[in-house]
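User: My instructor asked us to take a sequence, write out its structure as tokens, and then describe one feature of it. I'm not sure where to start. Here is the sequence I was given:
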Amino acid sequence: MDAETANGWLDAHFAPWVRALAPRVEKMACTGVIVSIPVTDEICRTGGQVSGQALATLADTAMVLACAGHFKAFRPVATTNLDVQFLRPANGERISCTATIVRAGRALIFTRAVLTAEPSGKEVATATATMAVPPAPARPATAGA
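Assistant: Let's start with the prediction itself. The structure tokens for your sequence are:
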């Protein structure tokens, strides 16, 4: 699994408003992913702090990609719950999100994310989410089976 493949998934499977954040996969593995976005005026609220909506979107996007890394291929998952804790104002040049798989079952995947402001390295938020995994497509019956 590599970052180039995961960046292709961003272009192919995520809504234009998510891609407008300019997310970039930095690192991809079967246990998690690191995704970052640039801090721009478009995602900052009054006072120059990154909006909570942008941080929640980054966390959710990274946790969906972590699920794809677990499957070693992009599979749609549905966020059934998302809990974000905002720790301090987010500012700097980029916001980096490290998302990991906590536990993966057949029907649900539990994920965790830590969002960090760069270049300070300060944690600005944490998040957890549960992802519902749709059933795998049925395999066609083979002749003579």
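For the description part of your assignment, you could build on this observation: Residues 52-71 form the longest helix (20 residues). Try explaining in your own words what that tells you about the chain.
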